[in-house]
Structure formats: structure tokens, C-alpha cells
Please model this.
Amino acid sequence: MYPELMVIPMREELVRAGINETRTAEDVDAALAQPGTTMLVVNSICGCAAGKMRPGVRMALSNSANLPDYKITVFAGQDREATERARGYFEGHPPTSPAIAILRDGKLVYLMQRFVIEQSTAQQIAGELVRAFDEFCAKATA
Model:
């Protein structure tokens, strides 16, 4: 684990974007028990999180008409219990960090894993997230 002082800016980057930290397993369960859609970001100290994932998430949130109802994050390598619990919702997928998931009513409907993040630019990640928000987070119209 890295010293907490070192990861504060990495945490705050997502918090400033309106994403709530979940630092315990109980926090993760409570957040994902809410009805609706939740984006869950598995944050990381790695370079692809800093240069691609976090900027891509911020761009997507500021450029999409369809946003998840809730937005939460866990920090891999720091908040271990929360991260393990979050990954437990990604049934059938190997644990990676960083990662970005969309869950509907606590069930995984979308997952962008590290190998996609590593091969993409921040702009490509943002575009893919906007597409995923449109598909999975759009509100039904009457």
C-alpha cells in the first residue's frame, strides 16, 4: 500500500467529478443496493489510471446527457475490502485495476477492464463511456 498522503490527489480527482468514495465493503454494498444505475470506478495509482481512465471518466460525465443515477469509486491497493467487495459484483470477470463498471439494480451490465483502458486514449474512453451511458443509463420516456 502506498502512503495515504500520496494517493489523496488521485482520490480527489474523482471526488471533484461527483463520484462518491466507498472505502469499506459495507459502503459498496449499501451503494449498490440502491435501485437504478451505478457507475463503479476501480481507481488505481498506475499511469493508465492517471493519464487515461480518470480523465476519460471526467470527460464522459461532463459530456453525456444520460448519466448513471449513482457514481461510486473504490481504490485498488488502498481500500482492499471495498475493492474486493466491488469486484465481487463483476462475477465471471478477472479482477483488474483500473476498471469502470455500470451496474443496474446491483447487477453488472457493463465492464471496461484494464486491457481496454491501456489501449485507449482518454478521449476514446470518454466516448465509449458516453455510448455505454446512452445504452444503459437512459431514462425511459413515456
Observations:
- The chain has six helices and five strands.
- Residues 47-62 form the longest helix (16 residues).
- The mean pLDDT is 94.
